[in-house]
Amino acid sequence: MSSIVDVKNIGMNFYTVDGELKVLENLSFSLEEGKILAILGPSGSGKSTLLNILSNLLKPTAGDINIKGKIGYMFQRDHLLEWRTIIDNITIGLEIQKKLNDDAMEKINKLLKNYGLWEFRNRYPRELSGGMRQRVALIRTLSVDPDILLLDEPFSALDYQTRLMVSDDIYKIIKNENKTTILVTHDISEAISMADQVAVLSKRPANIKNIYDIDLTVSNEKTPLLARKAPEFKDYFDNLWRELDVHEK
Ligand code: ADP
Ligand code: MG
After folding, report:
1. I want to staple 123 with a disulfide (CB 3.0 to 4.6 A). Which of 79, 127, 149, 214 is the partner?
2. Is 176 a domain residue?
3. What is the span of the domain harbouring residue 131?
């Protein structure tokens, strides 16, 4: 299997009025096509910085990045425009790129129908629940037909129960659409339930300490909700809890 994402020895320093802040140092990983990789680290550990580097919004201070495909980036906040309808929010990226043609529209309509948003296409974001807004944001990201999805704490704005349901929905969409995905999160349970692999960030300056393979397939099926109920879930949780540097001062 060849990797679709290859990252070698990335370093990132920020220079501020308070001096130099080393956020990432010697960070390396690679990812196979079709997999979901969770990158787990506490708040402030450099997760968003890493996604900004992968999506070319930031230039790293050091290191090499090799990405074979187009990136779709879903930010922590859904960034839906309140004055545009759902459909107009979804098409905005293609509109700006002047790529909104019949083919693209057909694909978007199919996504809306498949993922329960067709009836809501002419509504406004404020009329939708947090979970539906998140699905709209994902469909907007998918509308430009990316090969690799970057998701920045996609569920952090949702309350706990909603988060469980929405992570199931989002998981199904990602797997149906067969997208290679990098999901960053500070939530151990979310990482285990969603991902094929979990990479743990070290303390700052962060690198990847360890990558765990997660195998929680129950009779050929995995869903985040089922995964949370699997007996092995707790073992993965305990290992990752120990691995995370949240205990040290
Ligand atoms: P996370 O997403 O894991 O919470 P971030 O990547 O947002 O962490 O930030 C990592 C560290 O880098 C934080 O201490 C943050 O304050 C700092 N940081 C992020 N962006 C900048 C910037 N543009 N300039 C200076 N410091 C930054
Ligand atoms: Mg962040």
Report:
1. 127
2. no
3. 78-146
Ligand 1 centroid to 44 CA: how many Å? 6
Q: Could you report the per-residue pLDDT of 188-244, keeping only the tens digit for each?
A: 999 999 999 999 999 999 999 999 999 998 767 789 999 999 999 999 999 999 999
Q: How many domains does the chain fold into?
A: 1
Ligand index nearest the alpha carbon of residue 186: 1
4 within some domain: no
Distance (angstroms) between ligand 1 centre and the Cα of 53 equals 12
For ligand 1, pick from 22, 23, 45 the residue to mutate: most ligand atoms within 8 Å of CB.
23
Distance (Å, whole) CA 210 – CA 114: 37
**24 Cα: distance to centroid of ligand 1 (angstroms):** 10
**Roughly what angle, to the nearest 10 degrees, separates helices 160-176 and 130-142?**
20
Residue 17's H or E segment, with its range, is none
Tens of pLDDT, residue by residue over 38-96, are 999 999 999 999 999 999 999 999 999 999 999 999 988 888 999 999 999 999 989 99
Taking the CA of residue 82 as centre, how many other CA atoms within 13 Å lie in the half-sphere pointing to its CB?
2
Mean pLDDT confidence for 112-127? 95
Ligand 1 neighbours (beta carbon < 6 A): 14, 16, 21, 23, 41, 43-49
Does the pLDDT at position 165 exceed 80?
A: yes
- Give me the residues paired with residue 211 across strands: 199
- The answer to the question of residue 123 being in a domain is yes
Would 117 be classed as within a structural domain?
Answer: yes
Determine the distance separating the centroid of ligand 1 and the alpha carbon of 233, expressed in angstroms.
Answer: 31
- Decide if 187 contacts 157 (C-beta within 8 A): no
**pTM for the structure as a whole:** 0.93
